[in-house]
Amino acid sequence: MHVSLVTSDLRRARAFYEGVLSFVPIKRPADLSFPGVWYFLGAQELHLIEARDTNVNPLQHVAIEVTDIRAAKAVLQAHHIHCVAELKAGAGGVHSVYCYDPDGNRLELCQPIGFGGVANRGDR
Question: pTM of this prediction?
Answer without folding.
Answer: 0.72
